[in-house]
Amino acid sequence: MSKAPVSSATQASALASSLAAGKRDVARGLQYHFPTLTAPLRSQRPCARQADMAQPVRAYLGLGSNMGDKSAMIAQAIRRLDATPGITIIACSSDYHTPPWGDTDQDWFVNACVAIDTTLSPFDLLEVCLTTEKAMGRTRLRKWGPRNIDIDLLDHGGQSINTDRLTLPHPFLLERDFVLLPLAEIAGELRISGRNIGELAGRITDTSLVRA
């Protein structure tokens, strides 16, 4: 006895069901073999991130605060940075009590430096620093004025950059004792613009800069 012909609509419905089942099987297989695919993909980051470097580069950041619990603010910023993809904290200096610089009509600061390994470009790392400041409530009311957190990019693999957005090495690095002291603690052999950081820190005579 011959079978009744199957309509094209029925065939299409069966094919669609089969494909749907296949997609579910593939999805289950991907989740089983690659569970991290359920998390947001790194490729969803801004296009500028595609310029990230494959090999980590040693970079140095300076941190400061003169509002609220200053040491706690610096510690929080370091934790946020270390949790950022492409950044690994390598070393942290001691905290230093330091007088204000530039705009002296404000409270004293606590300053520190960190060494990091990063696969981020200098400009992407700068953006991370600024984003971290903003996330922690940083507001810019006046130049060099009071701030709950300040994160400066000091050096990025010895690169020399001079743009409206970023200058490397940091233009005031060699003038600021509150940067030289903590930086020398974690990178005494570092050379910036041909100058040895450890030697420069050793010449500091200002006794008002002390470990917190």
Write the layout of secondary structure elements.
Layout: H1 8-33, E1 57-65, H2 70-82, E2 87-92, E3 96-98, E4 109-118, H3 122-135, E5 150-156, E6 161-162, E7 167-168, H4 177-187, E8 191-192, E9 195-196, H5 197-202, E10 210-211
Task: Tell me the overall shape.
Answer: globular
What is the first-to-last residue Cα distance?
Answer: 95 Å
Topology pattern, helix = H, strand = E: HEHEEEHEEEHEEHE
Average pLDDT figure:
80
CATH architecture of the largest domain: 2-Layer Sandwich
Structure class: alpha+beta
Q: In the residues, how many domains can be counted?
A: 2
Proportion of strand residues: 15-25%
Largest β-sheet summary: 6 strands, antiparallel
Measured as a percent range, the helix fraction is: 25-40%
Number of strands: 10
Radius of gyration equals 26 Å
**CATH topology type of the largest domain:** Alpha-Beta Plaits
Polypeptide structure, described:
This protein is of the alpha+beta class and 212 residues long. It has 2 domains: 9-38; 47-211, 7,8-Dihydro-6-hydroxymethylpterin-pyrophosphokinase HPPK (Alpha-Beta Plaits, 2-Layer Sandwich). It is 33% helix and 21% strand. The protein has 5 helices and 10 strands. The strands form 3 sheets. Strands 1, 2, 3, 4, 5 and 10 form a 6-stranded antiparallel beta sheet that branches. The protein has a two-stranded antiparallel sheet with strand order 6-7. A two-stranded antiparallel ribbon has the order 8-9. A hairpin with a 4-residue loop joins strand 6 and strand 7. Residues 1-51 have low confidence and may be disordered.
